[in-house]
Design a protein that fits this description.
This protein is of the alpha+beta class. The protein has helices spanning 3-13, 53-74, 90-99, 106-113, and strands spanning 17-24, 27-35, 38-42, 82-84, 102-104. It is 45% helix and 25% strand. The termini are far apart.
Length: 114
């Protein structure tokens, strides 16, 4: 039995609704546990060495994708993160792109809002 399955089994035994290896949006979350108003989006790493920064990044991406799924599919809402600045460095633009953040100058946003 995998570590994911063991955690899922214990969660079910304690009254949690369990989604195991289910796709929400563009990513597959290892485990999503729900009980009452609390939702746990869990990334499971059963590695021989300690989990590193890459595992943290993967967990954050899974969480973000699950939130996006909830907003769009369940509530019918689209949320778009936008950075407005007179100047944006190339490094900041690359990072924003990797995070799904759109970058605009104030006048560009004004045109979009019309």
């Amino acid at each position: 039995m995998s570590l994911e399955e063991k955690i899922a089994e214990k969660a079910r035994a304690n009254g949690w609704y369990v989604e195991l290896r289910k796709k929400h949006g563009n990513r597959i979350q290892d485990l999503v546990l729900r009980r009452g108003g609390l939702v746990l989006v869990i990334q499971v790493k059963d590695l021989s060495s300690p989990a590193g920064p890459r595992a943290v990044t993967q967990t954050k991406k899974d969480f973000d994708e699950y939130i996006k799924h909830l907003l769009e599919k369940k509530l019918g809402v689209t949320v778009v993160p936008i950075l407005i600045s007179n100047e944006i460095s190339e490094k900041a633009k690359r990072r924003a792109l990797s995070y799904g953040i759109r970058c605009y100058k104030p006048n560009e946003l004004e045109k979009m809002l019309k």
